[in-house]
Amino acid sequence: MNLPTLTAGCLALTALLAGPAPAQVTFSVAVPESTPAEAEVYIAGDFQGWQPGSPEYKLTRDGQNLWSIVLPLAAGQGIQFKFTLGDWGRVEKGPRGEEIENRLHRVTGAETLELVVAGWAHGETRPSSQTGNIQQIEVPGFLDGRRVW
Questions:
Q1: Whole-number Cα distances in Å, 26 to 7, 31, 68, 103, 144
Q2: Residue 103 in contact with residue 93, Cβ under 8 Å?
Q3: CA dihedral sign of residues 65, 69, 70, 73
Q4: Which of 14, 16, 18, 45 is most buried, taking the most CB atoms under 10 A from its CB?
Q5: Do 114 and 27 form a contact (C-beta atoms < 8 A)?
Q6: What is the DSSP string of 95-140?
Q7: What is the pTM of this model?
Q8: How far is residue 100 CA from its own chain's centroid?
Q9: pLDDT tens column, 8-51
């Protein structure tokens, strides 16, 4: 094996072991006009342990109802996330107040995601529609305290 071939092989191996370089992903989100003026908007996802009010993931107000954050994420990484007002009792909801699935995205590189929050949970308690034998299970360390029933 000659020196140029060996050098090229070492560079390729180094790049493979280093993994993908972080890509700057901008999350730009429009929130409903009903969002309280004093509210702070956060992003929570599988990339940060699903912490709904983590200070490192607080968005910056860009206008009356516009918020944004730039996160370094690996190109090719698949992520799941939601927006909150700091806790799971005030998580984003659908246009009729319904639960929504986690948002999904695969990072393609440096990019801007323009997103819209339709509404927020208000932390109120509603009459339960639960029936049967339902038990809350707490597993230490499971999704940092999310409840499983």
A1: 37, 16, 7, 15, 25
A2: no
A3: negative
A4: 45
A5: no
A6: TTS---PPEEEE--SSEEEEEE--EE-----------S----B--T
A7: 0.71
A8: 13
A9: 555 444 444 556 679 999 999 999 999 999 999 999 999 999 99
